[in-house]
Specification:
376 residues, alpha/beta, Nucleotidyltransferase, domain 5, 2 domains, six-stranded mixed β-sheet, five-stranded mixed β-sheet, 18% strand, pyrophosphatase activity, GppA/Ppx_hydrolase, ATPase_NBD
Length: 376
């Protein structure tokens, strides 16, 4: 899929496309930006190509709770809109200050579901100069998969990548049995979820068994059962309700998909997964370098979830490994995570502190030839 480039209208680069030859992107020092506006958070990365990866130049993350009360009203509220626009104004300022040449700015589930989603995006354009792209769930999942590809093990025959967001959860099941171990990471990078084929695939290529976007994330699931006072009952109801929405996911319908498989790997990319990893490590201050790429066993995850539930609301808010912003939503996220682990037991969960932004950056840079592979 061709990447779209968006920059604030008043800050377009002086040299437009087609105005003469340009140096290779990596040598030119050009900057790339990726912004992900979700149901709960607004996040942006600005980066420069660096070998086969990228170097982060600036970052922004803010809990804006854009989808607050969306489950009940069907609309984005005025306070949510104002919080979000203030955050986007900061992002626009950073893009202008750093003279970012290539950017992709996307909005996801909250704007897809809200009856006033399109008018909100028009208001964003008018007040910030940013043109946000409303992407489909398939594209959201594709970007998450791309970002997680480097974590795929050479021993994995089947991989499920899941992204627990604020308003939705995406699951992609990938069959790698026909791909040599050394080529599996690259095969995952090339996947196109929009053209998934359930029956048959070219020899040596990864196969998408199935993809699903469940319209439930940490924020929407929390809101739906917020009136249940007993926390244990609420957790059980959230888990049951989420599982009900997996009924059309092929690997759920046919649980024998793992029969005879010697290597099954789950990779989770979400604030829930990284928070559980941070709590497992006992980090008083979050450290991405220690969390991203970590492998957790099912037993380790169950132990952390049990401790989080035992802490109660007040205990979670004061626990430094969780943080105040995450404390309210970690229970609904844990309910989703535990449901997935119960349905498809695994002794290794790959923890990914990466997602749409990283996927967008890699995709944009790769499309412009800005990344240098080992063979170059």
């Amino acid at each position: 899929m061709a990447q779209r480039t968006h920059v604030p209208a008043q800050e377009k680069p002086k040299q437009a496309r087609g105005c003469g030859p340009r140096p290779p992107a990596q040598a030119s020092g050009e900057l790339y930006a990726a912004l992900d506006l979700g149901t709960n958070s607004c996040r942006m990365l600005i980066a420069a190509p660096n070998g086969a990866q990228f170097r982060i130049v600036d970052a922004f993350a803010k809990s804006v709770r854009l989808g607050a009360d969306l489950e009940r009203t069907g609309h984005l509220s005025r306070p949510s809109i104002e919080r979000t626009i203030r955050a986007l104004q900061v992002c626009a300022s950073k893009l202008r200050k750093l003279e970012v040449q290539h950017a992709r700015l996307v909005a996801t589930e909250a704007c897809r579901r809200a009856l006033n989603g399109k008018s909100f995006l028009a208001q964003v354009k008018k007040r910030t100069g940013l043109q946000l792209e409303l992407i489909r769930p398939e594209e959201e999942a594709r970007l998450a998969v791309i970002s997680c590809a480097p974590l795929v093990s050479v021993e994995s025959e089947h991989v499920m990548v899941f992204d627990i967001g604020g308003g939705s959860t995406e699951l992609v099941w990938i069959d790698l049995t026909g791909v040599p171990g050394a080529e599996r990471v690259e095969a995952v990078m090339r996947l196109d979820i929009r053209n998934r084929v359930r029956n048959g695939h070219a020899p040596g290529q990864a196969r998408i068994v199935d993809f699903i976007s469940v319209p439930l994330g940490v924020a929407t699931l929390h809101e739906r059962f917020d009136d249940v006072e007993d926390e244990s009952a609420r957790f059980a109801l959230m888990s049951w309700y989420f599982e009900e929405h997996l009924a059309k996911f092929a690997p759920y319908v046919d649980l024998d998909v793992l029969e005879g498989v010697s290597g099954f790997q789950m990779i989770g990319t979400s604030g829930t997964v990284t928070t559980v990893a941070s709590a497992h490590l006992g980090l008083r201050r979050y450290d991405r370098k220690k969390v991203d790429g970590l492998t957790l066993t099912e037993r380790q995850i169950e132990k952390v979830i049990g401790r989080l539930m035992a802490l109660g609301p007040e205990g979670r808010r004061s626990d430094p490994s969780i943080g105040k912003d995450r404390a309210e939503l970690i229970v609904s996220g844990a309910a989703i995570l535990q449901t997935l682990l119960r349905i498809w037991p695994t002794d290794r969960l790959g923890v990914a502190d990466r997602g749409l932004r990283e996927g967008m950056l890699l995709s944009m840079m790769s499309g412009r030839g800005a990344l240098h592979t080992r063979g170059e």
